Amino acid sequence: MRRGSGANLGLLVPAIAAWIAASSACREPAAQSSSAPKGTAEVRRSVPRQVEPYGANPIQYMILEPGEREAVIVYCGVSHGQIEACSCGNNPSGGLTKAATVLDRLRAGGTPLVHVHPGDLFSFEKKPAKMSFVAEAAAVLDYDAIAFGDQELIDGLPRFQKLATQYTLPFVSANVLDRDNRPVAPAHVVKDLAGVKVGIFAVLGDERYLYMVEDFMKEVAIQPVVAGVDATLAALREKVDYIILLSQQDKYLDRELALRFPEINLIVGGHDERLMPVPMRVNQTLIVNAGVTSDQIGVLHLAIDPNRHVRVMGHELISATAVTPGHPKIDEIYRRYLKDTGAKSETEPDPTPAVYEPRAACAACHKAIHDEFLKSKHARAWQSLVKAGREASTECWSCHSMGYGRPTGFVDPDKTPQLANVSCQACHLVAHDHAARKVEADLDYSRNQRTCEQCHTAVTSPDFNFWEKIQDIDHHGVKVKRNPPPPGYQPGG
């Protein structure tokens, strides 16, 4: 057995064994098959091999068969020009800075990888001063290919082309031309991945999106997607073993392309922006989408044999959350952006209580609420990690404890066991003495959908419905919400 690279970096998405067996994509010389289409140097065959779901996290126990070598394809979501982590309260996530940290860790593992970006690197808001800093930060991530998205035109085609050249950004586009009918970027690139030639190309959807800037779109001509795909595949067929399409269009259009062009092995969605926790399989083509702003980094694990047959071993999404540090080089670029332009930081202060305290500090004056709370899943959040065998996974601690990584917050289960689990201060940012100080809330931090979805994401809680779950924790059934403290009680005592 062999562990997959990055398996301990984030939340793993379980791979269904039947899906893995069916989604193996192999290429063989045409001479080995009488069924090879004319003019095509590859055929497909289903390989009845699969990863058995050993243990709680099958991706951690992927099996390489004799002679096979592991490789990975790493992808992110659209960036929208976000260098810094999001302003996400107690769980600031994503941004090019955290994506770069994840990439460094993956590369340090030594597994060969290809790294792609689905486009919309720049913001849909016109921030010309920030664009050069975004481009500089993107260069740190060393992408193998970046799709050309409509947002790349937010400050005009000449500005885009200048930045792409200045920072050697590998944009690709198979169906967008300038006014002189010249491609705005190369149609494709070819990369070596553990001996396999990988062809990567991109298309921009025929359909317009609301935040396309029409004045700038007049600088280019979008050719029909199907024609662009057809022409690029004709150029790639004799050169590559594996084909990746970076798609700037809706998922249903990606599905149509997969049906029409089955030789595409992988479609990485971009402009659609809807996170796909589990890849979609259309015949032998996989379709994936990591959402927006690099909150999640997708990793497709492959096994490659000496004949360059490629087999899918598994898929995971690595969460770039609060416990993922920013990248030093990109953080420096962002600080320089703020200093040189006078821009205001786009990362809001992280709201925290004055001091993190155990739930017992609240029970003295809110006994009925406390008793009800003890019946909730929040009160057993740490136990759920233990049950899953993930209590040592520090990337989980920020959502299964109180204040991990922050002053006075959770340190580890031995030093601060009283702050394990999710308790009152996750929603109520007040300390034990708030009543004595006549303070109802130490900070103006509303308990709303955004508060909950910092941890209950589409990956960690795919079936989470805020409007249903809020009914379980808002104490509406508790009639006596406050009681006099016990005799002799002293706040903090």
What does this structure look like?
With 493 residues, the protein is of the alpha/beta class. The protein has two domains: 17-29 and 40-340, Purple Acid Phosphatase, chain A, domain 2 (4-Layer Sandwich); 360-473, no CATH class. Helix content is 24%, strand content 15%. It is built from 14 helices and 14 strands. The strands form three sheets. A six-stranded mixed beta sheet has the order 4-3-2-1-13-14, with helices on one face. The protein is elongated and about 85 Å long. The termini are far apart.
Structural class: alpha/beta
Helix content: 10-25%
Using the CA coordinates, give the radius of gyration: 25 Å
Write the CATH architecture name of the largest domain. 4-Layer Sandwich
**What is the number of helices?**
14
Q: Major sheet: size, sense and barrel closure?
A: 6 strands, mixed
The level-1 CATH class of the largest domain: Alpha Beta
Characterize the overall form. elongated
Order of helices and strands: HEHEHEHEEEEHEHEHEEEEEHHHHHHH
Calculate the terminal CA-CA distance, rounded to whole Å: 53 Å
